[in-house]
Design brief:
binds magnesium ion; 22% strand; binds adenosine-5'-diphosphate; globular; alpha/beta
Length: 449
């Protein structure tokens, strides 16, 4: 039988109540079952805060105490406290990692430090499942999640993950639930890596792919994917079904509910993805190969803290030569971008600057800017917002004039992407603080309802 793969996010394992609710979902699923957990809510953020140069020793100790008490509160609710010893040794190791990182700021130590959140949460969730009478084994995902040694953003090596899963993980899934960690992996030398910020959803998809599952389930704090972030706009509507194409653009352009790379394995294997709430598991969103026939906007997404880069090549350089050098430079500096246009002498690029502090890496290093300057005149605009209207057959929407005027009205536009994808229309705008909520509400009322 195909393995049921399910991932529980930070809020679904935040405390004992949440863990017991999530355990109930596991209990109601027939074997074989693989469970992937994130760190307890807010723990990864606290772990990162330990590593900032301007965090004082007092702040560090406070953060460690908070992490300790979050985990201890769960241990205190368990019938036996046999997990306390391994938990204490992880907490002790955390102090050591923090000191080691402060000494030489090695990226590999940072990944090891960040991994502690998932190691602790998986330890506790395994015990909660056992107390619910479910035979459960804890598995260290680093045995199978092989990545490149790019710390902070390890690239999964798919063929190795597949053969390691067949050898190490599959045999364990026969007669018990297996609990493992999201977010983390290891390189060929066995050093811990992480797959990128909030990447546990991606772990679930990769493991489902390696195990040949038919689908995977992402359990979070909202009952599915909505027409916009329901925390920002409570009138947002749930979406029962989404096509891969739409969902891919939704997550790329900011719907935080799924890590943006989660759908890559799903699309490769035609494997459906379910998103639902562990508090209210009855309904949710299925993402798959479905197509909505009607041309319509289904969702509005946004990403703040974006960077717009405009390069103007010299007319003496041919476009092909320029593009070849440009892509080579981006590749060498491992720059991921969401949008790219090449028009006349001008090339624009939108980068997610909100990731600039993640893993203490600057997106645009001085060396990179100097190399780009050799290609042409460069203009960088920081702090812009990327707003996307996502749906089906957007350029053919009968209401396209209404959509365009609703989008353009009252909005300063730095860049506009329309007609380039069937699934979205994107605007880059220097939005004033507070203007985003109003714009989303207005667009939602006019285009979705
Ligand atoms: P988890 O910790 O379970 O991974 P996340 O916080 O990463 O959860 O993702 C869930 C959050 O995504 C929701 O609480 C919601 O605020 C946000 N979100 C943003 N856009 C959307 C959307 N279009 N639909 C649903 N949730 C969204
Ligand atoms: Mg998430």
């Amino acid at each position: 039988m195909a393995v049921s793969v399910m991932k529980f996010g930070g809020s679904s394992v935040a405390d004992i109540k949440a863990m017991r609710r999530s355990a109930n979902i596991v209990k109601n699923t027939p074997l074989p079952v693989l469970v992937i957990v994130s760190a307890l809510a807010s723990v990864t953020r606290k772990l990162i805060s330990l590593t900032y140069e301007d965090t004082t020793a007092t702040e560090q100790q406070r953060a460690i105490e908070e992490i300790r008490s979050q985990h201890y509160a769960i241990v205190a609710s368990l019938k036996n406290d046999q997990v306390k010893k391994p938990l204490d040794s992880l907490l002790f190791g955390l102090q050591t990692l923090m000191q080691d990182y402060a000494k030489d700021r090695e990226a590999s130590i940072l990944d090891e430090l960040l991994a502690q959140g998932e190691l602790m949460s998986s330890l506790l969730f395994t015990e909660v499942l056992r107390e619910e009478g479910i035979k459960t084994e804890l598995f260290d995902v680093r045995k199978v999640m092989r990545t490149t040694e790019c710390f902070g953003k390890g690239e999964p090596i798919l063929n190795e993950i597949k053969s390691l899963c067949a050898a190490e993980l599959k045999p364990l899934l026969v007669n018990q639930v297996v609990v493992t960690q999201g977010f983390i992996g290891s390189d060929a030398e066995g050093r811990t890596t992480v797959l990128g910020k909030e990447s546990s959803d991606y772990t679930a998809a990769l493991l489902a792919e390696a195990l040949g599952s038919e689908h995977f389930k992402i359990w979070t704090d909202v009952p599915g994917v909505f027409s916009t972030d329901p925390k920002l706009y409570p009138q947002a509507l749930p979406i029962a079904e989404l096509s891969f194409g739409e969902a891919l653009e939704l997550t790329t352009f900011g719907a935080k509910v799924l890590h943006s790379r989660t759908l890559e394995p799903a699309i490769r294997q035609n494997m459906r993805c379910f998103v639902g709430s562990s508090v209210n598991p009855e309904s949710g969103t299925w993402i798959g190969m479905t197509t909505h026939s009607a041309a319509k906007v289904h969702a509005i997404t946004f990403k703040k803290e974006q960077m717009l880069i405009r390069l103007e090549r010299s007319y003496k350089t041919s476009n092909l030569h320029f593009l070849e050098s440009f892509v080579e430079i981006l590749n060498r500096y491992q720059i991921d971008f969401d949008l790219l246009t090449n028009h006349g002498l001008s090339t624009t690029l939108v980068l997610d600057d909100s990731l600039a502090n993640w893993h203490h890496k600057s997106l645009l290093s001085e060396a990179l800017i100097q190399e780009l300057k050799l290609l042409g005149k460069i203009e960088i605009t920081k702090g812009v917002t990327l707003l996307a209207l996502v749906g089906q057959h957007i350029p053919q929407c009968p209401s396209i004039k209404k959509i365009l005027s609703a989008t353009l009205e009252d909005m300063d536009i730095s860049a506009f992407y329309y007609g380039t994808s069937p699934y979205s229309l994107c605007v880059v705008t220097p939005m004033a603080p507070g203007q985003l909520e109003a714009s989303i509400a207005r667009l939602h009322q006019q285009l979705i309802g």
